[in-house]
Design a protein that fits this description.
The chain is built from 13 helices and 15 strands. It is α/β, with parallel strands linked by helices. Bound molecules: zinc ion (2 copies). One zinc ion is lined by residues 60, 70, 112, 114-115, 228, 301.
Length: 350
């Protein structure tokens, strides 16, 4: 009883002390300095001896707190590739202190807003105060030129202001903007450098056409990203024997319930109806992973992205009956494939 009393007094005194001290300017300055010292550093988690990936956005357009729209950062031995850059994902990369000097290119699976909307913020992070010496390479399907040109037009004044304000060393105007590459599927290997081969393949996401997936092969390890697609044999073909498949997933059984609940909102009901026909259910995606014989499947671009354990359990209902090697993702889910090994390490960058 006495011990409890001492603990309570200690806790109360500590609380009062912290409350008082954090109001003292000198203490605030000291704490701010400590925090600021961490800002200059970059995260050490993406090591050079692996093919690895971090989910920088795990949701689709349907909102879900704590999740950004679609984004996967792939690290091939210290060279980074950003696959899709939806709303909120650039902030994730910033918060995790990803070394943007290492970003070699951005790859867009298709041109829906939830895959492109943070392109301007990513541009800023790879342009101002970096070691880059050329505009950012952006690869995407037919129409990508329209997107990059549109961003360049909209941000023309931003480029000018920052250049005038910070000077050419910090904000070199001649490398502002994008180097755009339209992917031609008759030459599907879009990147072949530094032991990395990136292959684009077509998926089905009508009326979006073309919509693409990407396969990364690096020193014997492989990661495949489905992009937005219905169940598609082409994903099975291109994901064949890959270590890891990131597959989009949409729980139609949850959308059915949402539709019932939202009956009075005719517009939303129509949207929920429309989207059921152009995504893949978790069970279908698990079957794709089995047929492709992948080591592990990660579900991303979750619709509706789970908000708690209950909705997550419900989202993946039946998946365990299909296969065991699977994981849901949230923002920060990271997979590391060490070189010269079969190991698949699943962790979190946060
Ligand atoms: Zn999408
Ligand atoms: Zn889409």
């Amino acid at each position: 009883m006495k011990l409890l009393k001492y603990i309570s007094i200690f806790a109360l005194t500590s609380f009062i002390l912290v409350s008082v001290l954090t109001r003292v300017p000198a203490v605030q300055d000291r704490l701010m300095l400590r925090f600021a010292q961490t800002l200059g550093s970059t995260t050490a988690d993406l090591n050079d001896n692996s093919l690895s990936a971090v989910v920088c956005g795990s949701r689709s357009p349907l909102p879900s707190p704590g999740r950004a729209q679609t984004c996967i950062l792939v690290n091939a031995g210290g060279n980074y590739y950003v696959v899709d850059i939806g709303d909120g994902s650039a902030a994730n990369l910033g918060n995790w202190r990803i070394d943007t000097n290492k970003i070699r290119a951005t790859l867009l699976t298709h041109l829906h807003s939830d895959h492109i909307s943070d392109l301007a913020d990513l541009h800023l992070m790879t342009w101002v105060n970096t070691s880059h010496t050329k505009p950012m390479d952006v690869y995407g399907p037919e129409g990508v030129e329209l997107v990059t040109q549109g961003f360049e037009d909209a941000y023309q004044l931003d480029y000018q202001y920052r250049y005038e304000h910070h000077g050419k060393e910090i904000a070199p105007k001649d490398i502002a903007g994008f180097n755009t590459f339209t992917i031609d599927l008759s030459n599907p290997v879009i990147i072949d450098e530094d032991d990395l081969k990136v292959t684009a393949f077509k998926v089905t996401h009508e009326p979006v056409d073309p919509a693409l997936g990407f396969r990364f092969d690096y020193k014997g390890r492989s990661i495949v990203i489905s992009g937005d697609t219905i169940y598609d044999e082409n994903v099975i073909k291109y994901a064949k024997d890959a270590d890891v498949l990131f597959h989009e997933a949409q729980a139609n059984h949850q959308l059915d319930i949402m539709r019932k609940a939202l009956e009075s909102n005719k517009g939303l009901v129509t949207i929920l109806n429309d989207i059921e026909t152009y995504h893949t259910t978790p069970i279908e995606a698990a079957k794709v992973a089995n047929l492709a014989n992948v080591g592990h499947v990660f579900f991303y671009h979750l619709t509706p992205a789970p908000r708690n354990n209950l909705t997550e359990r419900m989202f993946f209902r039946g998946v365990n009956d299909i296969r065991k090697e699977w994981s849901s993702t949230k923002d920060g889910t990271m997979v590391i494939l060490p070189l010269d090994s079969d190991e698949i390490i699943i962790t979190d960058i946060n």
